[in-house]
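During the reporting period the student researcher (J.K.) took over the structure-prediction task from the postdoctoral fellow and processed the backlog of single-chain submissions. One of the processed entries is reproduced below for the supervisory committee.
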Amino acid sequence: MIPPGQWKILESILYPLRKSQSKTIRLVVQAMTCLPQAASIPIAAFLSQATGCQLDSALTRFYRLLHNPRLDDLLLTKQLLSQLLLHPGPLLLALDWTEWHPPWRMLLASVSVGTRAIPIQAAVFCRAQILRSQNTWENNFLKVLGLLLDELGARACFLADRGFRRVSFLQLLLAYPNHTFLVRMQDQVMVESPKFRRLLKKCRLQPGHAVDLGWVRLRQDGAVVVRMIGLWAKGQKEPWWLATNREDSLSFLASLYDRRMSIEEQIRDSKGARFGFQLIWTQIQTPEALARFALLIGLAVLILTAIGHAVASRRPEVRLASKKKGPRLSLITVGWLFIHSFFDTQSFSRSFLQINLPPPTLRSFSWLEKTQKKETQK
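J.K. obtained the following structure tokens:
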């Protein structure tokens, strides 16, 4: 077992919490990084060995932590965000829904780091509630996140798929002047500018091409003004129609929106039974407890990503690079595999986190750069 003195970073992250809460969270996060899995009984077994208590008592302690009404989840979110702000520049913040054991669905916000993402806010809802008021839940979720970002003086670029395409959500995003967004739209949306008025699907965008429609009004009532771009890579079934308030080049905007996939990879890392934390096996049915568990996994992912990056920087061969597919092992997996040898020689401090937390890995869209050059020459 790794000595408690090596986990000082967790103490600094959790210092605003009560000592009893902080101590249990530290043990749970240590369990998930060392095991590595997010199953209740293995976590309880780790707590039992660390504290010398009986297994059933440790399991009760873990469940009490997840259901403790006095633990402020927003404070956990704020502390996670404060660690991710160690790097300059805006956060790439992806939003997505994921299915859970019936009747639950989880709404997640995750910050892109490297090729993966770290969950920083979660909310779990019953499907029946979502059918009646999904727009309200999403709006409130975004408002709370926006308040926390403003308190920290942080800037973010929100990335969202077509499930968040509604105009009222775009209006809410536009209400935050310090933040930007990229939201994918459906081709049935009506756009209007001083020069034209048409559905996006009527814009005749072809595979291998891109178009910048400029600043347009959405819907027939012109409720929102956004910049609309269309990107259709060769070999893809359909284009990306992206609404944004950014002024960057098409290739850079594509690279940013491409990082929205990091939240889907993070969901797989959390839920996966083969390669992930195996959260899919948990039978926790209380929505608040499940959402809190996702935040604790976020802490574990933060630590493992930094350790994996530090190890891979010194020993690139550990990622088992493939010529066709790139590295076969993620930074999280490298962190799992080498965590014990890492702590034999180093300690995990705030300065270490700042150095070894990788920025988002932006994929190159060279075909867009070539397309733009041709249009410029014309």
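The committee noted the following: The longest helix spans residues 287-314.
J.K. will present the remaining backlog at the next meeting.
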